[in-house]
Design a protein that fits this description.
The structure holds two protein chains of two kinds. By secondary structure, chain A is an alpha/beta fold. Chain A is built from six helices and seven strands; from the N terminus they run H-H-E-E-H-E-E-E-E-H-E-H-H. The radius of gyration of chain A is 22 Å and the shape is globular. The longest helix of chain B is centred in the middle third of the chain and has 30 residues.
């Protein structure tokens, strides 16, 4: 019989991930203090956060010394919790006071906006995600164009979607949005108007499963989580 | 003779653009600007290409996107995890099932669950079926762009056999919406394996047909060979993936190198590469890839393990805090989802890395100095789906 999978099965590879640790060691050796945060999930992925001054150099180190020849993507994250509430908030009740606490993810961070980029190594068969903090009053980063030529459109997209500038980019015009568009849509402060005009109906009419009494959602979630462990084998 | 005002010229040009033809937009001192699209047939979808010409030669070529930008990254922030599936089906609409897989895998990684083996195998089969239906259309489509109409009809005809198989499993021809966090919606119907193998045999015949009909054709070779050559290091710089990268001689396929739990490494197949890096190589690699995909499907159906198709997951899916990146080798190239969770019902941010976006970003580089008809050949051979660029 083929066993059902369970959380225990997946969480076991906690052994040392030498290849990915090697990437972090290489970055630390080349950049020194400029690496301000790292994170490693053994067997899956590796993250490193560098200072803004070292952003371009970090790109060259990753490409040339560590062998990450293939460029994947560059984008940004706005860590501010959405002032318009979460999905699970009821559309009819008064909205809870939005949180303004900024909690960043892997490899840490001190600012609301972070730019992150990813490159891949064909020989080592692994990728690395680089992050960089940007202070709110100075959302500018030197362009990565000398590192990976393919970053061109990605930086244009970040510029229009997040309002982050890239010095040295030759053609930083809108990629998707019309030229006169105001605002930066992927910022959390930019409202998704469709949701404000009409509340999402899915949240209102939650149907009970057949043969099940209409129970509060949280209670249903609790009970089904508890049965998980037993179903492991 | 009455002088024609600029305004009239522009009105005429716009009317022509609406007609969907390559047409003259305006003339400048340095040369001529051609405006292809947004509804030109060679741009399938609404991609607009502005080409500056010196005589017949292209001075610069700039794709203009955004005519189909749907803002998925923003929309996903107000969806729950199961709801995301429906939207991302529509990114690359010719290989829809393949879009679902990387997102589901990223979510499963964050939740620390894994689908049972049978589900992983069926996912792999469906993934390859989407690849076949997607790429077989490319084969007809590229021939059509070069002027051979017949191949397109054959492609539409034979793709239907694959779509029927996808439909009988999931109920959807184009948008299966079949993958679930922790497994699959349903098991396969009875007798499906035999039918699918018959369809695979037809697809192999289709490949033979295309090889004699298109690849062997002198005109096709003259139009495609040596046109739009992309060297391997440039391809990597621009983040090209998939068949475009392998046609430049780079032996890299995520199916073999990072199968992320799916069943590709359980069966025998080959990664196809071609050293030339021109449009013909890209066509050739894709035709061979259909063949390999049919082999994968046949073997997977034979070895399909028994068991459940769904792991135990809570009814209401809350994903623990964390970040995960999962990429798979989709029909158009590498597609990846970078999912950031804050422990809520829906993702905090999703970055969608699509293959076509990077693949098309090389167009300004590769089209410099080519002749006008070659622009169409190059665009067709790079193969993009507009929804996959604009998201």
């Amino acid at each position: 019989m083929i066993p059902l999978s369970s959380p225990e099965v997946v969480d076991t590879p906690a052994e040392v991930d030498e290849a990915r640790q090697g990437v972090l060691d290489g970055l630390a050796a080349e950049l020194g203090d400029a690496v301000v945060g790292t994170h490693l999930v053994a067997g899956h992925d590796v993250w490193a956060r560098v200072t803004r001054e070292a952003w371009v150099e970090a790109g060259f180190v990753v490409r040339d010394r560590l062998g990450f020849k293939a460029f994947e993507f560059l984008s940004a994250i706005d860590w501010l919790p959405s002032p318009y509430g979460k999905y699970e908030d009821s559309p009819t009740d008064p909205r809870p006071e939005p949180s303004t606490e900024i909690v960043t993810g892997y490899a840490g961070g001190d600012t609301r906006f972070q730019v992150f980029a990813r490159a891949h190594s064909l020989t080592q068969r692994l990728g690395v995600t680089l992050k960089v903090d940007l202070p709110d009053d100075d959302l500018v980063l030197p362009t990565w164009l000398p590192v990976y030529a393919g970053v061109n459109w990605h930086e244009r997209e970040v510029r229009e979607m997040f309002g982050i500038g890239f010095t040295g980019h030759p053609h930083l015009v809108n990629l998707y949005l019309p030229g006169e568009f105001e605002g930066h849509p992927l910022r959390k402060t930019f409202p998704l108007l469709a949701r404000h005009v009409k509340p999402w109906p899915g949240i209102v009419d939650v149907e009970p499963m057949p043969g099940e009494a209409a129970a509060p959602d949280d209670a249903a979630a609790e009970t089904s989580t508890e049965t998980d462990g037993e179903a492991g084998a | 003779m009455t002088a024609i005002t600029d305004r009239e010229k522009l009105a005429y040009a716009n009317a022509q653009a609406a007609d969907g033809r390559v047409n003259l937009e305006f003339e400048t001192d340095e040369g001529m600007t051609l405006n292809m699209g947004p509804q030109h047939p060679a741009t399938h979808g609404t991609l607009r290409i502005v080409v500056k010409l010196d005589g017949e030669q292209v001075v610069s070529c700039e794709p203009v996107m955004g005519y189909m930008h749907r803002g998925y990254e923003k929309l996903l922030e107000v969806r729950t995890y199961p709801q995301v599936n429906t939207l991302i089906n529509r990114i690359d609409w010719l290989g829809s099932f393949a879009n679902e897989v990387p997102f589901i895998l990223a979510t499963e990684r964050l939740m620390g669950i894994e689908a049972p083996p049978r589900a992983q195998w069926i996912r792999t089969i469906m993934f390859e079926l989407s690849r076949i239906s997607n790429i077989s259309l490319f084969v007809g489509d590229m021939a059509l762009h070069i002027g051979a109409m017949t191949a397109a009809f054959y492609a539409f005809r034979d793709r239907e056999f694959v779509l029927n198989q996808i439909e009988s499993v999931s109920g959807g021809r184009f948008h299966p919406n079949y993958d679930r966090i922790g497994g699959l919606k349903d098991d396969l119907p009875k007798g499906w394996g035999a039918d699918t193998k018959a369809a695979m045999a037809r697809i192999r015949d289709f490949c033979d047909e295309m090889e004699t009909l298109v690849e062997g054709n002198e005109i096709f070779q003259a139009r495609a060979r040596g046109v739009g050559v992309i060297p391997a290091d440039v391809a990597l710089q621009y983040g090209l993936t998939g068949a475009n990268l392998r046609a430049s001689g780079v032996d890299w396929d995520l199916r073999r190198d990072e199968p992320v739990g799916l069943a590709w490494n359980e069966v025998d197949w080959n990664v196809i590469t071609h050293p030339d890096g021109d449009s013909f190589a890209r066509f050739w690699v894709r035709v061979q890839e259909i063949r390999e995909a049919t082999r994968i499907v046949d073997q997977l159906i034979d070895g399909l393990p028994a068991g459940p198709v769904m792991a135990k997951v809570p009814r209401i899916i809350k994903v623990p805090e964390g970040e995960a990146w999962v990429a798979t080798e989709n029909p158009l190239g590498e597609m990846g989802f970078y999912v950031i969770s804050k422990g809520d019902l829906g993702p905090f941010r999703v970055k969608i890395r699509t293959a076509s976006f990077n693949n098309i970003s090389i167009v300004p580089w590769v089209c410099r100095g080519v002749y006008v008809p070659d622009v169409v050949t190059i665009l067709a051979s790079l193969y993009f789906i507009l929804g996959d660029i604009d998201r």
